[in-house]
Amino acid sequence: EPEVTQTPSHQVTQMGQEVILRCVPISNHLYFYWYRQILGQKVEFLVSFYNNEISEKSEIFDDQFSVERPDGSNFTLKIRSTKLEDSAMYFCASSDLRSTDTQYFGPGTRLTVL
Amino acid sequence: TQLLEQSPQFLSIQEGENLTVYCNSSSVFSSLQWYRQEPGEGPVLLVTVVTGGEVKKLKRLTFQFGDARKDSSLHITAAQPGDTGLYLCAGPNTGNQFYFGTGTSLTVIP
Does the CB of B100 have a partner CB in chain A at under 8 Å? Predict the structure, then answer.
């Protein structure tokens, strides 16, 4: 069964450093998403992406964040200058054009900012 | 912001018992999804309910969408230890932004 994959599974970085989290969505899906989950808290929407542009973003997704689909298979989330409070699990998800309500999640990247 | 409140927050039951968890909102959703999440992993989709009053069954799990599309329930019959996990409901706003519920952490004791 096709699945969303994410790398790395765990990333440790120093405050102020840039990180790039990578995702490979399900191959025939056209909508891509990033969410984050701070330890013990709700899963929170960050951004959705369709047709090579951001379609929606939350207040969390400020100028420090950016997303990119650099090629036909990868979808990336970049945090330019990490803060301690960026420590969280980051989940990528994808959905197909006919059923955007149904989103399939990857296993997540645990980001730890020291 | 469309809030989804889940209850109970924590539930610990014996194997073989039945249980129901609830997902409520003051807002109308076009659909609601139920996910199960294991510690350190991503949410795994269980079901999507779309029509008000809809009931969907997945083996021992029964999902219902409220008539007014503001709430949903998940009923598990004869719970097994393998059902242990965090159950999340989620739904989209008018766009593609998903709101997740607060979650119900279920523990089934053998």
Answer: yes
Phi, psi of B82 (to 5 degrees): -70, -10
- Give CA–CA dist B36/A14, Å, rounded: 32
Chain A, nearest residue to B36 by Cα: A105
Q: In terms of DSSP bridges, do strands B85-92 and A109-113 run parallel, antiparallel, or are they unpaired?
A: unpaired
User: The tokens of B46 are what?
Assistant: 């269980």
CB contact residues (below 8 A), chain A span 12-71, against chain B = 31, 33, 35, 42-45, 48, 50, 55-56, 58
Residue with tokens 């998800």: A93
Q: Which of A1, A69, A62 is nearest to A31 (CA)?
A: A69
Q: How far apart are CA A81 and CA B74, in angstroms?
A: 41
Q: Considering only CA atoms, which of A35, A30, A81 is closest in space to residue A52?
A: A30
Instruction: List, for residues B48-101, the tens digit of each pLDDT value.
Output: 999 999 999 999 999 999 999 999 999 999 999 999 999 999 998 766 678 999
Nearest to B42 among A31, A58, A106 (CB): A106
- Specify the pLDDT at position A29: 92
Best CA proximity match to B100, nearest among B10, B8, B35, B16:
B35
